[in-house]
TrEMBL record:
It comes from Mycolicibacterium fluoranthenivorans. The chain crosses the membrane at residues 6-28, 35-57, 69-87, 99-121. Keywords: Hydrolase, Membrane, Secreted, Transmembrane, Transmembrane helix. This is S-formylglutathione hydrolase FrmB. GO terms for molecular function: acyltransferase activity, transferring groups other than amino-acyl groups; hydrolase activity. One of its GO terms (cellular component) is extracellular region. It is found in: Secreted.
Length: 454
């Protein structure tokens, strides 16, 4: 059961078919007068509910791409069955009443499954069970166990996941426990060898567990280490929200000082506790969706701490709706605070960068577009976030063009998939050789960005 897929296959089809069957039972052989009054009211209510859901998702910038049409169908169906359950209660027998009541959670479940298939967030039944129970990941240990392994000279054949409690003294940001992946080479000596590190962030709704599980980052890193004598970067799976529904976009503001947590909390902790190499040349940042924007913004703001980033389907900058809504929601209507985290403004204020490189991955087909680091006197001009096409390719092409003019080598690389963690997992596997080689991972050769000349 744990391996049953939830984003495709027979299980989602069966659940949706059962929901349709139950709805048919509810409305079967109803009088024409009932159709005229209550079913038409239910259809109208369902359509209104779908419209409100569409408006809310768009207004709150909860998604980077358009939802699948099936989502609105199931939202509307949920509104319909709620009306039918209420209107059927006094006029029908218990069998039809029970069917009407059962239809409500079934339709709600179909909504949830459609959203899950759209994002690829929980791919299997086991993934749902793990989230509900809070089960530990395989080979997940605490720091005391890791130190004991070092003292005993134990070298695992695969990477080890370490749960860490990073203090929030420097940021005041209340966050959940985070995870650190240590490759087998980290256990080669005591003290461990100094390895590069990659900070990793997921979408606006999620947990630090998302990348190593749904994003398959742990399996990807293990496969990479197996080909390179146990060597791979340290992976740091961070909490940028503090709770599942809190979208900080990795900035400092009313929703929490997430940026300070990453810079003043996570990086010093990983260097001090796991011996990661502290120089910017050996730190990278990889993220998907809001996490991609986080990787972009954090690296541009702190080139003294990060030199390389992988932005998978990120936005033009921190995004919580329109520019006016973003300034109000994320920065308490402080325009100066917004500009301090706006990537376009940050690039223009910083001036030419030295030694920074970027991989912009975008969902959809196409060929890579490469731009060398060629600082110019007239780099690409900034654009208004409300005027730029929100398609990921258009956003990435503009950012890469602008970054190239400020001395940042970059490439826009199609991910040949939708805006989902499934695509993000594949992109990370493709980009890891470039990330690891560029950051100076032992026994890992440097490779060029896609599309770069030989």
């Amino acid at each position: 059961m744990n391996d049953l897929p939830l984003t495709h296959g027979w299980l989602p089809i069966v659940i949706q078919a059962v929901a349709v069957l139950v709805i048919v039972v509810v409305i079967w052989r109803t009088p024409s007068r009932f159709w005229l009054h209550w079913i038409l009211l239910g259809i109208t209510s369902g359509a209104a509910l779908a419209g409100v859901a569409y408006w809310f998702i768009h207004s709150q910038a909860l998604a980077d791409g358009p939802a699948v049409p099936a989502l609105w169908v199931w939202v509307a169906a949920t509104g319909l069955v709620v009306v039918l359950a209420i209107t059927n209660w006094r006029t029908t027998r218990w069998g039809r009443r029970s069917a009407a009541l059962a239809a409500i959670p079934l339709c709600a479940l179909c909504v949830a499954m459609t959203v899950n298939a759209w994002t690829g967030y929980l791919p299997t039944v086991g993934a749902v069970a793990d989230r509900v129970t809070g089960a530990h990941l395989p080979n997940e240990v605490d720091e005391a166990t890791v130190q004991d392994m070092l003292r005993r000279g134990e070298r695992p054949t695969a990477g080890t996941m370490v749960s860490v409690k990073i203090p929030d003294d420097a940021s005041g940001f209340r966050h959940r426990d985070e995870l650190v992946y240590l490759p087998p080479a980290w256990f080669a000596s005591n003290p461990p060898p100094a390895l590069p590190a990659i900070m990793m962030a997921g979408g606006e709704f999620g947990t630090p567990r998302d990348w190593p599980t749904t994003g398959e980052a742990r399996a990807t890193a293990d496969a990479f280490a197996d080909k390179h004598g146990g060597n791979a970067p340290i992976l740091v799976f961070v909490d940028t929200s503090g709770e599942f529904t809190n979208d900080t976009e990795c900035v400092n503001g009313p929703r929490g000082n997430a940026a300070d947590h990453l810079i003043k909390g996570v990086v010093p902790y990983v260097v001090a506790h796991f011996g990661a190499r502290p120089q910017a040349a050996h730190w990278g940042f990889a993220g998907w969706s809001a996490g991609g924007t986080c990787a972009l913004t954090t690296t541009l703001m702190h080139p003294d701490m990060f030199s390389t980033f992988l932005d998978i389907d990120g936005q033009l900058g921190p995004n919580a709706g329109s520019k006016t809504q973003t300034v109000a929601r994320l920065f308490g209507s402080d325009l100066d605070a917004y500009l301090a985290f706006d990537p376009q403004t940050v690039m223009a204020r910083h001036g030419p960068y030295d030694g920074v490189a970027a991989w912009f991955a975008v969902s959809g087909p196409g060929q890579p577009t490469y731009r060398p680091a060629a600082a110019t006197d007239t780099p690409t001009a900034p654009v208004d976030p409300d005027s730029l096409d929100t398609e990921h390719d258009a956003v990435a092409q503009h950012l890469c063009s602008m970054a190239g003019g400020y001395g940042i080598e970059c490439a826009v690389v199609p991910g040949n998939g939708g805006h989902s963690f499934t695509t993000a997992a594949r992109v990370f596997a493709d980009a890891l050789p470039w990330l690891a080689g560029r950051l100076g991972t032992p026994d890992v050769p440097a490779v060029a960005l896609p599309g770069a000349p030989r």
